[in-house]
Design a protein that fits this description.
This protein is 43% helix and 13% strand. This is NAD-dependent epimerase/dehydratase family protein.
């Protein structure tokens, strides 16, 4: 599997090992290797050092494997100055992984995509929820660099298997991923939760967010390996959609001491700030539209119910508090 030290990937790795799979995990550095060995001290893990932007090592890393689990992709919390800083590694890395899989004779690929590749289809009514039949339009002015990167990377994978039909591809498209991290390096996904908890977001952006628990995302990836009905399909990993203000209220109901936002930011204020902030411009692009994506197809095909968003959010918050307390005690 690629990107094995990521927030989602660590949960996938735990699920794979629990089910008896032998795993060759790609990492970017020896530090990440030590991190995974610390989490899974008794596992007989193999490691390969790979870079999404470089050709070296990919073919050797996939030799002897039966399944490619491609989870690696850049995920920033802020909008980059140059969208290509996200788009090129995502697309090129996906194609490198797919080509190496073909060279290695791999017939089964599970790709981590995103609801961001689904929920902004140009021409679709803005308040109409989306599903797996929808595709984000990467050239639409409302689409940010991350959304474009996930869309173009997933499209590149589907185009590749169209040309190589002996490979069976499944994509898992999570919304914002909450839930319990396995260590303190939880990255962008839970940084938003931390910001909502600590007053760093004094007023909530007036937008909604589709969300899912990381444990559900992991089990979907692993279950898809042998589930025939998932081959050639994309699945939204989506438990529910809520306003950011509502997410803050869920956290406040769990712990009244948290400094969660008490109101939404007015659009006129965002327009002023957006003149100077690329990130606020991205928020404005989501005003007046829903980012809701249905998870019905996944629940029906995989035969489970998603963990409620509130439970995933509180699990995130508990972990953030625990790790912050540990940092203070050092």
């Amino acid at each position: 599997m690629t990107g094995a030290s990521g927030f989602i990937a660590k949960h996938i790795l735990r699920e794979l090992l629990a089910q008896g799979y032998q795993v060759r995990a790609s990492i970017r550095s020896d530090k990440r290797k030590e991190e995974l060995q610390g989490l899974f001290p008794d596992a007989s893990l193999e490691f390969a050092t790979l870079d999404l932007t470089k050709d070296e090592g990919w073919q050797d890393a996939l030799q002897g494997c039966d399944v490619l689990m491609h989870t690696a992709s850049p995920f920033p919390l802020t909008e980059p100055k140059d969208p290509q800083d996200l788009i090129r590694p995502a697309v090129d890395g996906t194609l490198r992984a797919m080509r190496a899989a073909k060279e290695a004779g791999i017939k089964r690929v599970i790709l981590t995509s995103s609801c961001a590749a689904i929920y902004k289809q140009a021409g679709k009514p803005k308040m109409q929820p989306s599903d797996e039949t929808n595709w984000t339009s990467p050239d639409d002015p409302s689409v940010g660099a991350y959304e474009a990167s996930k869309t173009l990377a997933e499209k590149a994978a589907w185009d590749f298997v169209d040309e190589n039909p002996d490979i069976a591809l499944t994509t898992i498209n999570p919304g914002a991923v909450f839930g319990p991290p396995m260590d303190a390096r939880y990255g962008s996904s839970l940084e938003l939760v931390e910001q909502l908890m600590t007053g760093k977001v004094p007023m909530a952006p007036p937008m909604d967010m589709v969300a899912v628990d990381v444990r559900d995302v992991a089990r979907m990836h692993v279950a898809a390996i042998d589930l025939e009905a998932t081959k050639g399909e994309r699945f939204a990993a989506a438990s529910g959609t809520h306003r950011l203000l509502e997410l803050g209220r869920m956290l406040k109901a769990w712990d009244s001491a948290l400094k969660t936002p008490g109101r939404e930011a007015p659009v006129w204020l965002l327009r002023i700030v957006g003149l100077f902030s690329r990130d606020v411009q991205g928020v404005l692009a989501n005003v007046g539209r829903t980012l809701a994506v249905s998870g019905e197809k996944a629940e029906k095909t995989f035969g489970f119910k998603f963990i409620p968003v509130k439970d995933a959010l509180v699990a995130s918050a508990k972990a953030v508090q625990t790790f912050k307390l540990k940092e203070k005690s050092k």
